[in-house]
Structure formats: structure tokens, C-alpha cells
Amino acid sequence: MTKAEERALEKYPANKTVFDKYEKQRYAYICGYIQAEKDNELTWEDMRELHIIFAEIDVDIELCKTNIKKETLGYYQEVLKRFKKLKENNEKK
Description:
The protein is mainly alpha-helical and 93 residues long. Helix 1 (3-11) packs across helix 2 and helix 3 packs across helix 4. The protein starts with a helix and ends with a helix. It folds into 2 domains: 3-39, no CATH class; 44-92, no CATH class. The protein has helices spanning 3-11, 23-39, 44-62, 73-92. The longest helix has 20 residues, at 73-92.
């Protein structure tokens, strides 16, 4: 059983009778879950953008434009913040 199917059964339990009133809801839930997984997958384009963001932050550190230190929690949080902002801006276009 897939994770999507498990979640669908949690949300819409199967009815053991002949008529399963939640069958359509489970199917829709599974389809939506699978689509959400696809939408959230990282692509090679995302990986390229992450690489660029890492490089930009490294330059900012070298030029003392930020007080973040490499390989720290703050470093990775900044990468994630910039990546999310980039994704949001791309979705608005």
C-alpha cells in the first residue's frame, strides 16, 4: 500500500459493506496526494538554482556582506530562504 493510499484510508475509512460511500473521496485524495508529490519534487533546474544560491552566499561571506558563517545552520537557512523566495517569484510570473 502506498503512502497516498494509507493517508486516504486514514481520512476516509473503507466501508466493508457493498456500498463504500468514501470510495470516490479516497480516489480523489490519492490523485491529489500524488500530484502534490510531483509538484514538490526537486528538478535539475532547482538543483542548478540551489548551486547558484550557495555560490552567491559564499561571495556575500567573502565580501563581508553578511555575518553568516559557512556550513552552519544559519548558512543553510539562508539558502532555503532564498530558494523559497525564488520559487515564489517564479510562480507569480
